[in-house]
């Protein structure tokens, strides 16, 4: 197993991204910060939610047996349920503005990878022809009326059919994620939060260029590229600097020896 990552805090008091990896799985979470002045109904912050969800998802993925191979959506749903139980009676878990997170999860299989994407994080997989396949959940980009979205629209669309889904207090969201499988012979992949996908969405670089930079120079260089573009061109919307996390790795086929088998976590 070979995994490396970089995470850089953007504007805000905390880095609300989190990355982790185990023997045959990896994930990146990106906490969603509520607009200033919005009542979340929760005494905990986004950083707490992301940390709790990361710990619960690590436990679920680590306990899953390869021969059993529970669907990633089931594992994320169980992790959300664990996190939900940790809130306590003082938190209004029905509040649509309760702290939440995106999720990008991969798991190595005999033929390639299973993946799960919830909200706007991205997974990259190299193709046999030298290209790269990008998978993301783009439903947040397709809300009615176009950006900029009002807080009322986002609240009404969050975790509702026809809107978009995030990992927060409702385990059903896990089963609304974008899921699938891709073939892979060499086990290479990458995950990133939307702070890094700005390179494509805001600045017009292709996913191939993003993958090449990750492979040739590493995730820290990719994050540095994001920051350079933000300083040079500004941003069309959102924070001038968002939390940015990139993880790149390679997993052997199941059954082959894999050094570094202990789960590894990254939090900027």
Automatic annotation (TrEMBL):
Q: Provide the protein name.
A: PPM-type phosphatase domain-containing protein
For this protein, the record's InterPro entries field holds: PPM-type-like_dom_sf, PPM-type_phosphatase-like_dom
Q: Which Gene3D superfamilies match?
A: PPM-type phosphatase domain
Domain called PPM-type phosphatase: residue spans: 14-226
């Amino acid at each position: 197993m070979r995994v490396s990552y970089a995470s850089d805090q953007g504007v805000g008091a905390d880095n609300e991204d989190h990355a982790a990896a185990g023997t045959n799985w990896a994930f990146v979470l990106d906490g969603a910060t509520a607009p200033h002045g919005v009542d979340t109904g929760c005494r905990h912050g986004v950083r707490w939610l992301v940390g709790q969800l990361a710990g619960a998802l690590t436990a679920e993925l680590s306990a899953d047996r390869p021969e059993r191979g529970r669907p990633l959506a089931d594992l994320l749903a169980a992790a959300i349920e664990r996190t939900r139980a940790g809130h306590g009676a003082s938190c209004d878990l029905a509040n649509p503005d309760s702290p939440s997170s995106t999720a990008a999860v991969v798991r190595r299989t005999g033929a390639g990878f299973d993946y799960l994407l919830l909200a706007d994080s991205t997974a990259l997989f190299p193709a046999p022809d030298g290209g790269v396949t990008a998978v993301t959940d783009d439903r947040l980009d397709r809300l009615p009326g176009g950006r900029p979205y009002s807080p009322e629209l986002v609240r009404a669309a969050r975790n509702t059919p026809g809107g978009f889904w995030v990992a927060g207090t409702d385990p059903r969201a896990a089963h609304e994620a974008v899921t699938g499988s891709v073939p892979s012979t060499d086990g290479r992949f990458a995950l990133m939060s939307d702070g890094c996908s700005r390179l494509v969405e805001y600045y017009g670089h292709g996913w191939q260029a993003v993958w090449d930079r990750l492979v040739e120079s590493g995730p820290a260089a990719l994050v540095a590229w994001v920051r350079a573009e933000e300083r040079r061109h500004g941003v069309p919307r959102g924070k001038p600097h968002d939390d940015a996390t990139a993880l790149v790795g390679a997993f052997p086929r199941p059954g082959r020896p894999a050094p570094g088998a202990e789960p590894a976590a990254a939090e900027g």
